[in-house]
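User: Some background: our group keeps a shared notebook of sequences we're curious about, and every so often someone picks one and asks for a predicted structure to add to the entry. Today it's my turn. The entry only has the sequence so far, pasted here. Could you supply the structure so I can complete it?
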Amino acid sequence: MAQQPVEMILARQLASHLFIPVLLTDTTGTVIFYNEPAEQLLGVRFEETGRVSPEEADRLVEVGDDPAGGPDATGRPVLTALQQRRPVHTRRPVLRRGDQVRLQVEISAFPVIDQEGRLLGAVAMFWERRAL
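Assistant: Of course. Here's the predicted structure to add to the notebook entry:
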């Protein structure tokens, strides 16, 4: 496995200490890490999955569009962050885990860009949206 850029190593270190579910992807959309709160929400430990390709992620978790969401409420905020190099926030997309549990979640994703302007990956934070 290739050595990760220091920015991605630091992002992983930070994510491992956050209380909110966080996942880290490389530039291809492959999940290279997710933290313990993400494990609890997704229903599977990172130690069990390791790196997760975009295709495997689609089998593990299905993120759908929310018809009540706005124009940015797409099911693929990480891909938008990577492709458009901008932060994205989606409200209430449907997340269905491998165990078929459906959750309403909000997702914020942003690209990780180094000092030379190179895209290194993306960070996504997500949480369950509970009824008020």
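Suggested note for the entry: The radius of gyration is 14 Å. Helices lie at 6-16, 36-42, 46-49, 54-60, 77-84.
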